Each structure stands twice: as C-alpha cells, then as structure tokens.
Amino acid sequence: MSKQQIPVIVVAGFLGSGKTTLLNHLLHNSHGARIGVVVNDFGQVNIDAMLVAGQADSMVSLSNGCLCCVADTSELDEMLDRLARPQARIDVIVIEASGLAEPQTLVRMVVTSENPRLAYGGLVEVVDAVEFEATRQRHPELDKHLRLADLVVLNKVDRIDDTERLLLLNELEHLAPGTPVLPTSHGQVDTALLFDHEPRTEDLSQPRQLTLDELLREHDADHPHEHLHTAYDSVSFTESAPLHPGRLMDFLRDRPTGVYRIKGFVHFGLPDHDQRFTLHTVGSHLQVSRSPWPRRENRLNQLVLIGAELDAEQVRRRLAECVDTDPASTEERSMLRLLAALDEPQPEN
Ligand SMILES: Nc1nc2c(ncn2[C@@H]2O[C@H](COP(=O)(O)OP(=O)(O)OP(=O)(O)O)[C@@H](O)[C@H]2O)c(=O)[nH]1
C-alpha cells in the first residue's frame, strides 16, 4: 500500500454480533490514527464525543436504507471521497455494514473505487459466539460471508466455556479453511492487526484537533479498565539471501493458517529486478510496489506476519523454503506473477 493510500476496512456481521462495539473499541484505541467511519445508522456510536473531538467530518452516514442496497455505487463513492479529502487527514476508513448487508457487494464497491487515495483494507466478519448456530440456521448465507472474510472476529467469547470455544474454532476452520479467527469479547481487537499506526509527523507543539482516542485517554486514566489481551501473534522473518519469486508467490497464495497481514521488504536474485520490493497483504489481497534500495543499505528480506494463533516455526520454515538457493539459474519468467501484482501504472501500448 503506498503511503498516501487510506485503507478501507469493511466490518460486517449479522444483527447484534458486536459490530458497533468493535467500531467503538477501534475509535477509543486508535493510537492517534484518525479513523473515518461510514455507517448506516450512527445512533449507537458515541457521536457526542466525536463532535467534541472535532471529528464530525470523519463520519458520514446513510440515514436510511442499506449501504449495499443502494442502486448505484455513487453514494458510497461520494462518502469515501469526502473522507479521503486531504483536508480530512484521515488515516483509515471503516465501513460498518448494517446487520443484513451483503458484504460481497460492499467489498466490490470498495475494490472498484476509482479514488486513487483509497485501498481496500480487508473484510472483517464479526460472529456472535453464542448465537452462531441459530444465526446460521436463520441466515445460511453466513457460511458464504465467512469464506469471503479476511478476518473472522469470534465475539462474545466471555459468554461461552472453553469446550464450546474449541468446537466453534474447529467449525470455523472447517467452514473457512485458513482464515484467521480471533476470539474476543466486546470487540477488543488490537488495532495493530487492522492498520498501521504511523506516528503523525505534524508539529505537536502547535494547536491542533485531538483525535477521539487522545481525548478519551484522559478519561481512561481516571477510569482504569481491563487491559486488552492480545489474541494475535506476529512472526518476523529476516534473511539476507534473495528469495525465489515463484516460490514466494506460492507462499502468498497458500499462506499458513491464521496469517492475516504480511508486510515488509523482499529482494530477488535476478539482475533486472534488483530493486527493493515492498509487500502488503490484507487477507487474500496483495499489493506490491518497488523502489531502488536506499544507498548503503544491505539487501535484506524483512517480513512481519500477523495473525491469529500462528505456528511461528511453520511460518519461518515455509518462508525459508522460498529462499533462492541458485539465483543464477532462476528464470526471468518466474517474476511474472509478482510483476502482475505490481501497484504501478502499466505502460501504454
Ligand atoms: N457479553 C457480551 N456482550 C457483547 C459483546 N459484544 C457486544 N455485546 C453486546 O451485544 C449487543 C449488540 O452489540 P452491537 O455492537 O450493538 O452489535 P451490532 O452488530 O452493531 O448490532 P446491529 O447494529 O444490530 O447489527 C450490545 O448490547 C453489546 O453491548 C461481548 O463480547 N460480550
């Protein structure tokens, strides 16, 4: 994802699964990132605090009707364009789908957005651990939504016991093989899993608008609450030898179970492709860009993989298998799949 692009995350889930709770949690724990929100009905979000924080413009809403049912995409496009304006200084946009929205349609709308400042940031499907079976019976399409999701948040685990939790995790693995599942209560997803918190570069000594979570931090200091327990892991991989592009693409296509995000730099042993390649994946979505290696910087593959219940050893072993042991005989065409994923203008014919 290039630096100026704003990730757009779609949060879906059936009625009452905990989407608004998750969204409120993100807003309170954004670590300084400015979050723009698109909702169908903002009644449940703490709009008063949003207004106090001067962030009203970071929220747009569709007062009636369902986002994914709007006949054409122009309304959503317009909302996203408003949030993506440079003056809004938004770092990440979250779309909360209404409980009955078709996430597929929303995801398509985001992916096909023509706004170059926006990048699809993944589909998060919130599932109610208590109501899971009942919801599946009422809405068999839930199975399809799970398969589409980049991350499944198994919410309300405070209301089930360990045996039920294990059964549900097995069932989710069966319904959506390989998709990371994050058991939580009260939507307490660590925001680092969903987006990067890059420190803002603005001059903090100057007067400026506070973000919502900065505003609430004072309040939280006075009202201590339970600490987040992080149910996700991250695995780092550092290797100086070049990677084999074809094997790396196989790895990215068939990622170890639980991997949700991958970010970092890689290099290859082909003389015509000796730049630094930057990789970003969110769920199954891959973005690749390239740039010359900074002067005096050693060539190094440095990847961070983030997900739920990762098997660190397996992740590192699978990545080690991507090392190109004989770059001299690696064929140029092994770069093709990777080049096809490049996020740069294609030469005109
Ligand atoms: N016990 C428990 N209750 C939760 C949890 N997460 C959310 N709730 C409660 O569940 C109810 C529904 O949560 P919401 O966040 O409003 O759910 P939603 O998905 O936004 O609901 P809709 O907007 O109707 O689709 C609220 O009363 C929440 O307080 C949880 O992890 N555990």
From TrEMBL:
Domain CobW C-terminal: 232-323
Reaction equations catalysed: GTP + H2O = GDP + phosphate + H(+)
Gene3D superfamilies reported for this sequence: CobW-like, C-terminal domain, P-loop containing nucleotide triphosphate hydrolases
Record keyword Nucleotide-binding present: yes
GO CC, one annotated term: cytoplasm
GO MF term (any one): nucleotide binding
TM ranges: none
Pfam families: cobW, CobW_C
Designated name of the protein: G3E family GTPase
Organism placement in taxonomy: Bacteria, Bacillati, Actinomycetota, Actinomycetes, Pseudonocardiales
